[in-house]
Protein 1
Amino acid sequence: MLQLTKRSEYALIALVHMVDREGEVTSVRELCERYPLPKRLVAEVLKDLSHAGLVISQRGAQGGYSLAQAAESITLGQIVGAIEGAPALTNCDSIASTRDGGCEVHPVCPIRSPVERVREHLWRLFEATTLRSLVPAPHANREAVIQRLRESLAGSPSA
Amino acid sequence: MLQLTKRSEYALIALVHMVDREGEVTSVRELCERYPLPKRLVAEVLKDLSHAGLVISQRGAQGGYSLAQAAESITLGQIVGAIEGAPALTNCDSIASTRDGGCEVHPVCPIRSPVERVREHLWRLFEATTLRSLVPAPHANREAVIQRLRESLAGSPSA
DNA sequence: CAATATAGCACCGATTCAGTGCTATATGCC
DNA sequence: GGCATATAGCACTGAATCGGTGCTATATTG
């Protein structure tokens, strides 16, 4: 349906949360207290991110997860690939590419279906999107705006 | 799973096929003789494209479908939207946007989840991708390369 | 009228996904 | 040491979506 799975969504929320707390550890409990997320599922997702080397896990009391890389070097492609598995794109796997690994007729490739080319475009976009670019604004600023919104929404029965 | 549905894939194949035959009508039978596609499903897809105004249908014998617009003005977003339905993106539909239709804190929008922003990026890419850009090469050229590939793969002639 | 081809609707089987249960293991703190 | 906390691993279930099909009606050509 051309949409990210909930798992990927939770992964993004968790990672964005961790960007605000680089250096600290973030537990699943902490995440689920802050956002309305199913605890067990988030745990499953974080585990996958750990396997993919995007976060570092620390077991035991006071344990949790922290970013394994800088937010600038983690791409959306890595994240989604870690959770949903890399899309079967790899490269042009049509008959033309079975020769020597490369696609010999690449310049005018007549075999590559439009779908493959779309997926390639999409994946390039994902690889070019860093985790950092998904973090809306500095933490303090965000909290301030959220607070302001809460007040205006609670106070005015209009709208 | 972050991939186009088969329906969208069939739509793209059909539309690309029609680009090569602008002005002519293309029937479902013609499409399924040329590509190994399930006839009934392709018919369903073409019907949806017709409803969306992307192709024009002509009923009865010698009938079929033809492009309703130039290949340059049909976007991938329109196609996928017609088949799978527009992703529930519309705009920032968070609490911040319920004020006057527009998102008042857009510049530093703290509510918009990372997922929404990803979908927005993705959709922009789709809106910017024209049907024309998905057609690999001029028709004659393509046929020639296909023929050459068939020969080299078969080893023996007369495939 | 017959053949062709789209229009419309509803249905089924398979796959994928969201979410949970249970148990094991590692760490910090008393 | 013992307990609480927190991740590791595995498997399972219910629900939603998707791929594909059956059947019938309607329009057009000859």
Protein 2
Amino acid sequence: MEEVLKEQMISEQAVSELAEIFKALGDPTRLKIIHTLLNTELCVHDIVQVLEMGQSAVSHQLRYLRNLRIVKRRKVGKTVYYSLDDEHIEQIFVQMLQHVKHG
Amino acid sequence: MEEVLKEQMISEQAVSELAEIFKALGDPTRLKIIHTLLNTELCVHDIVQVLEMGQSAVSHQLRYLRNLRIVKRRKVGKTVYYSLDDEHIEQIFVQMLQHVKHG
DNA sequence: AATACATATGAATAAATGATCATATATAGT
DNA sequence: ACTATATATGATCATTTATTCATATGTATT
């Protein structure tokens, strides 16, 4: 019984990657950033205004999300515009949001 | 600009719930448990065998998942069988797994 | 009732995490 | 060159988290 199941074990690599992505989504600040960037591109300053948080905290989280390629950035002069960079994650975010809102 | 965006702000309640669910999925052990329970019902002992982890650690995580109604349990004598209890989360797990496996 | 087995639980500990502070870097305007 | 603005970064600190250990609870068997 256990033998059969063990063979079907998910690879450590796969779990790690999965966990990494879900962990990224498992924080209120990062979720707010993602939500704010749905359908829009915004500079750090604007994100800070919307979230009403410190610039540093937001910047740190943006880097976190960028490392996972969940967001990408575009520099124009001294301002940096962030936008979502992973349609699939975007899709799962929206899906889960529906899940939470209704049933 | 910021005014308009702030109005579209996601509610604190919604973010909290979202974060709670994603956080639950953001841990390797819990992901392995969920994966193991896909399409099956298993007792704690078997899960412990498959994950090759301490019984206590598994039990703690099962409680965690149960509190969020991600898994449910069924008692038969002295053994307790666990199974998945949220189709939507199950669906998102599978979706994300595909995402990670392929592109 | 005594023992064995299955699961749960509380406390303790080490590691990870997120915000903040201070400061650095980069670009623009004067 | 100087100043202002936008963003990034490193260190620190408090909190959270996951595992382990020891032990408790619950059930079956003899």
